């Protein structure tokens, strides 16, 4: 038995004849010391519910429970893992809720009363759309009202770097701009590919995301999204060219914002994007 009184994860996988499925972007972490470290990274999980996406055989689920999570709400799309997760739920009465379904179609805020934390080894094939959806859905009636306390998420290292990137860095793009506008995002530690079964082809990384009380600067979220899509949609072009699709006179817009018209999107700070978004709204009002 493992430290938590349950069978080792290798035995669980063998007993239930589980295999990672590429369709779901599955890679399993079997080391409970590592999953407990991830759980500790999330901060205080004893006084809130924790939502986990793609628990698989339950390695992180067990780590969260061992570190004192009040309750873990596990969303799993693959029915094969439900029996293994149910064994964990039976071992921790009242502290595990299992939801079989597609996380892309489930609003985490609908599963529990605020506040909550999301802690997940995200399936790589849905990681980026999930975090974008969580951030965008935190807008209610034009106001930034996040109900989550934090997001502690594992990504491919490349995606993690994009999420925490700042302007003038090579990997800075729409994801980094969005995260920088609405959150504080930090790459906490890397996870070697050999920590997984089967090992993925890439290194992974844990990112801690904490929502800002207010966005970094004022901007209409829909205008901000349209602006960054145009700016980064053609990264190699100067802004005076890439913004033509959303602005009749990008030269004037950039001049009013104090931005060199020969600049490219990766050179522009989050605050400057917010200024451009406000000026765009003024131009059509």
Would you mind describing this structure in some detail?
With 285 residues, the chain is an alpha/beta fold. The protein is built from eleven helices and eleven strands. The strands form three sheets. The protein has a seven-stranded mixed β-sheet. Strands 1-10 form a two-stranded antiparallel sheet. Strands 6-7 form a two-stranded antiparallel ribbon. The protein is elongated, with a radius of gyration of 21 Å. α2 (32-41) packs across α3, α8 (221-233) packs across α11 (270-284) and α10 (250-257) crosses α11. α3 (59-66) links the parallel β2 and β3 (71-76). Helices cover 36% and strands 20% of the residues. The protein has two domains: 9-211, Rossmann fold (3-Layer(aba) Sandwich), CATH 3.40.50.150; 221-284, Helicase, Ruva Protein, domain 3, CATH 1.10.8. The termini are far apart.
């Amino acid at each position: 038995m493992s430290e938590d009184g349950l069978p080792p994860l290798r035995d669980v996988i063998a007993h239930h004849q589980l295999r990672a499925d590429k369709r779901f972007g599955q890679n399993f972490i079997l080391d409970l010391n590592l999953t407990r470290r991830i759980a500790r990274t999330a901060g205080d999980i004893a006084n809130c519910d924790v939502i986990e996406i793609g628990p698989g055989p339950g390695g992180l689920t067990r780590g969260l429970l061992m570190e004192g999570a009040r309750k873990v709400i596990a969303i799993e799309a693959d029915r094969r893992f439900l029996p293994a997760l149910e064994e964990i739920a039976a071992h921790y009465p009242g502290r595990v809720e299992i939801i079989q379904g597609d996380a892309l179609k489930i609003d985490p805020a609908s599963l529990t009363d605020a506040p909550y934390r999301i802690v997940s080894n995200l399936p790589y094939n849905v990681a980026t759309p999930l975090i974008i959806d969580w951030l965008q859905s935190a807008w209610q009636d034009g106001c930034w009202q996040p109900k989550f306390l934090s997001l502690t998420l594992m990504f491919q290292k490349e995606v993690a770097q994009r999420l925490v990137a700042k302007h003038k860095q090579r990997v800075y793009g729409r994801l980094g701009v969005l995260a920088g506008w609405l959150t504080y995002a930090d790459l906490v530690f890397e996870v070697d590919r050999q920590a997984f079964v089967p090992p993925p082809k890439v290194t992974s990384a844990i990112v801690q995301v904490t929502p800002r009380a207010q966005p970094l600067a004022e901007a209409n979220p829909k205008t901000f999204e349209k602006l960054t899509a145009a700016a980064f949609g053609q990264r190699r072009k100067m802004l005076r060219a890439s913004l033509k699709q959303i602005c009749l006179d990008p030269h004037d817009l950039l001049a009013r914002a104090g931005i060199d018209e020969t600049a490219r999107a990766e050179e522009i700070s989050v605050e400057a994007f917010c200024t451009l978004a406000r000026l765009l709204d003024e131009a059509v009002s």
